[in-house]
Structures are given as C-alpha cells and as structure tokens.
Design a protein that fits this description.
Helix content: 40-55%
Subunit structure: Homotrimer.
Protein name: CUTA protein
Number of domains: 2
CATH class of the largest domain: Alpha Beta
CATH architecture of the largest domain: 2-Layer Sandwich
CATH topology of the largest domain: Alpha-Beta Plaits
GO molecular function: copper ion binding
Largest sheet: 4 strands, antiparallel
Number of strands: 4
Shape: globular
Order of helices and strands: HEHEEHEH
Keywords: Signal
Family: Belongs to the CutA family.
Radius of gyration: 17 Å
Length: 136
C-alpha cells in the first residue's frame, strides 16, 4: 500500500519539487508550463470553448488558428473534414482540469486534448503565464 501511495503521489511531489527548485534558483524548470491542442468543428465552437477556458482561468492565452484540413480514422473509416485548432498556454498542473472541462462541454464524442511541455522560452512570457493561471 505504501508503494501504491508513493506511485500515486509522484506527480504531486514532482510538481512541488520543481516549484521549489524554480523558487530557490530563480530559473525556469522545463515542463512547468504546457501547450495544449484542442480541435473544434467550427470557429463559433472554438471561440465559445476558448472563452470558457479563459473564464475558468485554465489558461493565460488561447490562440484560435484558422480553418485547416484534417484526415483521420473514425469507426474504421477514413474521414476528411475541416477544423479550427486551439493552442492553449497554461501551467502543466492544469492540464488534467483543462482536459476534464473540455470533455464536459465539447460536442465531439472524443475531443482532441493533447499537450506538450514547454522546454524553454522567454522567461518573461513564462512568468506571465505563471501570474495569470492560478495554482489552485
């Protein structure tokens, strides 16, 4: 049971260790922030979802990229459509909450919510994300 608890607590403990390291050294720790990708059927849905993300303070910044073509397999068939892509800049610790929120409101049966950690960047911009996305 102790091992199970340790495994379950690892992400929380790692996050706290990274925050402590950044606070003590004043340096950016790779992976503290992330960019999430969310696909949307059309521009209105994209704007509504982006507004919801911002209203809930789940991100500091959301880009709404213009319509693009998409090819994908759905229920065994090759599909082709157009989509609008959201790029969401947030704390990595908020990705789970962001994903849950998107799944609760998105019209797609299985919405795309994937994220990549930010390795490096403009320290002032990364700090700005930090200031605009509450920790809890």
């Amino acid at each position: 049971q102790v091992m199970t608890l340790a495994v379950l607590m690892y992400p929380v403990l790692r996050s706290l260790a990274l925050q402590l390291h950044a606070a003590v050294t004043g340096s950016y720790v790779s992976g503290t922030h992330s960019i999430a990708f969310i696909n949307c059927l059309n521009e209105q849905i994209a704007k509504d979802i982006a507004r919801g993300i911002m209203d809930k303070k789940l991100a500091a910044y959301v880009n709404i990229l213009p319509r693009s073509s998409a090819l994908y397999f759905w229920k065994g068939e090759l599909e082709e459509s157009t989509e609008i892509l959201l790029l969401v800049k947030t704390r990595t610790s908020k990705i789970g909450e962001l994903s849950n929120y998107i799944r609760s409101i998105h019209p797609f049966e299985i919405p795309e919510v994937i994220s990549l950690p930010i390795d490096q960047g403009n320290p002032l911009y990364l700090n700005w994300i930090e200031e605009n996305v509450p920790r809890n």
